[in-house]
Amino acid sequence: MKKLINSPETVLADALTGIEAADPSVRVDHVNRVIYRAAPKVDGKVALVSGGGSGHEPLHGGFVGYGMLDAACAGEVFTSPTPDQMQAATKEVDRGAGVLHIVKNYTGDVMNFEMAAELAAAESGVEVATVVTADDVAVQDSLYTAGRRGVGVTVLLEKIVGAAAEEGRDLAAVKAIADKVAANGRSMGMALTSCTVPAAGKPTFDLPEDQMEIGIGIHGEPGRHREPLASAKDIAAQLVEPILADADFTGDPAIVMLNGMGGSPLIELYLMYGEVAALLEKAGVSVARTLVGNYITSLDMAGCSVTVLKADDEILSLWDAPVETAGLRWGR
Amino acid sequence: MKKLINSPETVLADALTGIEAADPSVRVDHVNRVIYRAAPKVDGKVALVSGGGSGHEPLHGGFVGYGMLDAACAGEVFTSPTPDQMQAATKEVDRGAGVLHIVKNYTGDVMNFEMAAELAAAESGVEVATVVTADDVAVQDSLYTAGRRGVGVTVLLEKIVGAAAEEGRDLAAVKAIADKVAANGRSMGMALTSCTVPAAGKPTFDLPEDQMEIGIGIHGEPGRHREPLASAKDIAAQLVEPILADADFTGDPAIVMLNGMGGSPLIELYLMYGEVAALLEKAGVSVARTLVGNYITSLDMAGCSVTVLKADDEILSLWDAPVETAGLRWGR
C-alpha cells in the first residue's frame, strides 16, 4: 500500500488536522469529528448538515462554507459517522430555523442520521428535515444499500440547497428544493482500478490490467459488470445511456458533472467530458452548466462518474449563486 | 496502461475538445493548440502567455481567465509547444501593452519561447518580456534543464502576476513583480509511483512497492534519491527541510502550496499539509495563505510537492485579488 499517511489508524485524525490548518474558513471539532464554518451566521438561517464515511474528499468537509454546508460529520474511511457526531453537529448549527440533514442512501448513514434527528428533536428541540440522495442508476440494491446508492447528485444538491438556505428560505422550502434536486438527478460511474482502504492495506477488489468495471460504487462495491478496457468514447456511452434511459432530460436544461474517482488525472477527466458532452448533445440534452474534476471520490480509485441533473430556472439560479468553500469554486 | 483515453495519439486533441466544452469562459484554437479567454479585454492590458508540455493540468490551460493568463499553449504530453504556437498566441493576445511570457525552466520551453518572442517582435512589433521559473531545489541540473527546474512557483506566479496585469500595470512593472515571485519561491516534490505517458504505454520508471523517490521532477525525471516508504511526517520533513535550507522564509509571511501530482487523493494531500504546516510553524515561518490540491500535476503520478513563497504586502494583496479560472478558485 503506497499512501501519504502516518498510519492507517490515524488517517482521519491527521487529515482533519490538515484541513483545519489549510482552510481558515472552517474550524474542526476534533473530539466529535465535525467540520464547521469558522464564522457561522448568528440566527435565522436554516442550517445544512451532511456527512458520511471519509475517503470521498472534497465531499463533505470541503463543502462547508458560505453557500453550502454548515457542518460535515466525518466517519472513519467508508464508515458512517455515529449518531452522536450528527447530533452534536445538529445542535451546534441550529439557529432556531431548523436543520436539514443531507444523507447519501447507505444503510448506516440513513439509520444514524435518523437516530440523530430524533435525539436532536427530543433533547434539544431542534426541528430536523431530511433529504436522502439515491441517484446511482447502476444497481437497484447493493452491498450497503436498500435501493439505489447516493452519489454525485449529493454534490450538486449541497450547492443548490445551500444557496436556497443562504437566501433565508424556511425549512419546508429548503427541504422542497432538496427533494426536487434529489428527484431530478441521475449518476453512473466506472473504475479502471480498485481503491485501497488504509485499514485493509490492500486493494478492495482485483481488477486485471485489461479490465474495467462499469457501474462501480464509491466504496469499491460491485457495479453492473466487468469488461475489457475500452475507449473513452465507449466508456462515455456506457455511462450516459443508462442515465438517459432512466429519466427524461430533454426539455429543461441540465447541469452535468464529470467527476473523478480520485486517482484519474484532470487531463483524462476533461477528455471524458468531451465525449459525454457530444453524446448529450446528440441525445438532445441541453447542457447549461458543467463541473469537471474530483468532487466525490473513492480514495485513490482511477475512474470517473457522470451526473446529470434536470435544472429549471430556480435550480439554475441557485447554482449560479456565490459559494465560498475549499472544495467547490463558483459554478459557471 | 489504464487510462480514460481514445488513443495515445489523440489525447491532447480530445482533451482540448473537452476543455472547450466544459468551460464557456475559454475558447480553443485547435489548429495552434492555444487556449484563450473567450472574452478578452479590448485594449491596454499587458497580456500573459504561458504554456508547456501537457500532462500537468490544470496548469496551464486551467489558469486562462480573468486574473490569470490570457493564453496557454499546449504541447504534446511532456513536450514543449512549438515557437509557432507561442508566436500565434503572443500576436493574438497583444493589446498594445506588450506580452509577458511565463516559462518553466526546461530547455525546450526556454528555447522555443525565446524564438517566439523574437518572431513576434520582428514580424508583428509585439513587445515581449519573459520570466523563467526555476524553483525546484531538488537538483541543480537535470535531464531536461540547465539549472533548476521550474515547478510549483509557476502556479503562484501566474495568479499573482495575473492580478498585477489586471490592475493595468505596464509591462516593466508586471515583469518586475514576476521576477520577484520567481526569486522568492522554492519547491520540492516526491513520488510514490511513476506516471505513465500515453504514447509510451508503460510507466516512465520502475519504483518498487516499498520505495519512494524524493526530489522527483514533474516529468518523472530522477530526483535526489530513493528510499523505503516513510510516514507522512517523515516525507514532509524531507520536502520542507531542503526548501528552508535554500532560502530564508522567516520575517515576511509565506504563501504555501501543497500540490498533488495527479494520482494522490485529496484526503492524503490534506494530511500532508497538516504535517508541512507543523514543520513550518516550528521553523518560525508564518503561513499567511495556503493552497491544497492538484495544481501542477504529472499525469497519474502519486505523490506531492511543497512550494513556499515569501510574500510581502504587495504579493499578498495581489494573491487576494479576484480570479475566475477553471483551475484556481479564489485563493484564501
Summarize the structure.
The structure is a homodimer of 332-residue chains. With 332 residues, chain A is of the alpha/beta class.
Structure write-up:
The structure is a homodimer of 332-residue chains. By secondary structure, chain A is of the alpha/beta class. The first copy, chain A, has two domains: 9-184, 3-Layer(aba) Sandwich (Rossmann fold), CATH 3.40.50; 185-319, Hypothetical Protein Tm841, Chain: A,domain 3. The first copy, chain A, has eight helices and twelve strands. Chain A has helices at residues 11-22, 83-93, 107-124, 153-166, 171-184, 232-246, 266-282, 313-319; strands at 26-29, 34-37, 47-54, 71-77, 99-104, 128-133, 185-191, 211-214, 225-228, 254-260, 287-293, 303-310. In chain A, a hairpin with a 4-residue loop joins strand 1 and strand 2 (34-37). In chain A, 63% of the residues are buried. Chains A and B meet through helix 1, helix 6 and helix 7 of A and helix 1, helix 6 and helix 7 of B.
CATH topology of the largest domain in chain A: Rossmann fold
Assess the beta-strand content of chain A as a share of residues: 15-25%
Helix content of chain A: 25-40%
Assigned CATH class of the largest domain in chain A? Alpha Beta
Largest sheet strand order of chain A:
1-2-4-3-5-6
Task: Give start-end ranges of low-pLDDT stretches of chain A.
Answer: none
